[in-house]
Amino acid sequence: MDVTFYGGVREVTGSMHLITTENDRILLDCGMFQGRRKESEQKNRILPLDPTIITNIVLSHAHIDHSGRIPMLTKANFNGHIICTRATLDICEYLLPDSAHIQESDANYLNYKTVRSTLYQMKISPRAKKLSKRKSNDIKKLLKKNQNKLNIDIINELIEKHHLEGVHPIYTIEDAEQSLKYFEGYPYKLPVNIGNDTLCTFYDAGHILGSAISIIKIRENSHNHTICYTGDIGRFNKPILKNPTLSFAEEDRDIDLLIMESTYGNRLHEPVQDLKPQLIKVIT
User: Fold this and answer.
1) Which domain holds residue 233?
2) Residues 10, 82: one domain?
3) Per residue in 108-127, pLDDT tens?
């Protein structure tokens, strides 16, 4: 058995870890890198592995830095299942299309700026230092349906006509919606078959609704291996959310490998009750 880390290591975002056994390849999370636009986009556009070799995906929770590249995998012929809790499935039905919408909007705006800049240069007089206000407004009217809505069809036509380099979203809303067909939601504390002689049991991680600590049991070459993947772990005594699980079933306590987040490692949080006065101060 091997474990390969493709993200979320020495950095917070882009969680993606591959468990390779003799018979299966199980992916733990498939998150997007987040941060500076150009750097993050370059990382996100490249899948570090062939989606067709993956047996199944275990998704710890719905946040985009853990789930955001799933539509890329399903678009690229991933043919397994995405195993998660029921609440994670429900939240992904909103977050993944929303992630795609943001990408589409960003791509459209960048393409608008490219076309606008090109038309400015074409319309400017050789003697003028800058474009007249009238010509500038004419270009904006051409590229916009109204003050807040771009004319995407015209922009795309002009990109093609003038052989400009357009920006494309990493995946579309349609891609995101198609990816949801691969999801399977399960309750906590129910062992689920995720591969050949491989079981996964979810425990509440207390991070967001549906977040899970995954106990993965693998039997390979007459040996048993148990992996605990924590995903993101929440704080204790928070409203709405349950506390992170501390009491595991007896059969799930003997861990061979612990894969654990450390976002707030070596840091003490203030007591939750001390945060309410601070919140009141901020909003008033």
Assistant:
1) 2-95+171-283
2) yes
3) 999 999 999 999 888 876 66
